[in-house]
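agent> fetching stored inputs for the adenosine-5'-diphosphate docking request
agent> found them:
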Amino acid sequence: EAMLRLSGVSKTYNQGRENEVQVLNGADLTLAEGEMVALVAPSGAGKSTLLHIAGLLDTPDTGTVEIGGVDYTGLGDRRRTVARRREVGFVYQFHHLLPEFTALENVVLPQLANGIQKDEAETRAADLLARVGVGGRAGHRPSAMSGGEQQRVAFCRALANAPRLLLADEPTGNLDPATSEQVFDTLVGLVRGTGLAALIATHNLELAARMDRVVRLDQGRVVAQ
Ligand code: ADP
Ligand code: ADP
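agent> prediction call returned; pasting tokens
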């Protein structure tokens, strides 16, 4: 079963104005259950735009977005927001953890927002943190953690609601090369065996090569690398 299917997705910013820029032009991409795909392209090629559309944060001008077999094209903002919370986990280059909350709380909060009971949410959060090697940091705030630890917590937060799809935009782009490699492996280990599909934008071709498949953006279309 396809976890993500983008069909004929096009996106133009500033349509009709002099700074008009067509970023996506009939992009097609399908991710099967459990598949990990790297997205490589130069800066400005449209990776963030593609990830935002795939994650229901933005809408394409034309084309369709299906997650877990459900076509979200044309659904209202409320339906899309609910779906995004349940079905999609996001990771960015910078962790975006809430600074005034502990690691554990940062992983608990999205579950509470999704209607999970506090006890169950805390158990799942502690389990996720332990799996990525930061169990001992559960009571610490982000500012007391290293960059690699912060990103590990961000992965746990992204997976807190057991989404079908993980979207990551340069998840290790902010880390030194050695840490980057370790943290990337942690992410792969966390995703493998869950059935989750992952689309990971990265500039690091060595890390990209560890994925099941590498695709790139070429003139607004997704092509095999
Ligand atoms: P990447 O992630 O590959 O760097 P982006 O998707 O962020 O690429 O951007 C692709 C192009 O679209 C860039 O030229 C960028 O400046 C432009 N762009 C992105 N978002 C917007 C926006 N909201 N409004 C106008 N232009 C945008
Ligand atoms: P990234 O680090 O993912 O490439 P950017 O710094 O390109 O992110 O973009 C950050 C945000 O600003 C995104 O939400 C993107 O849509 C928006 N953005 C990027 N380029 C432009 C632009 N030229 N005009 C307006 N918004 C833009």
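agent> quick read of the result: The chain has a mean pLDDT of 94.
agent> awaiting further instructions
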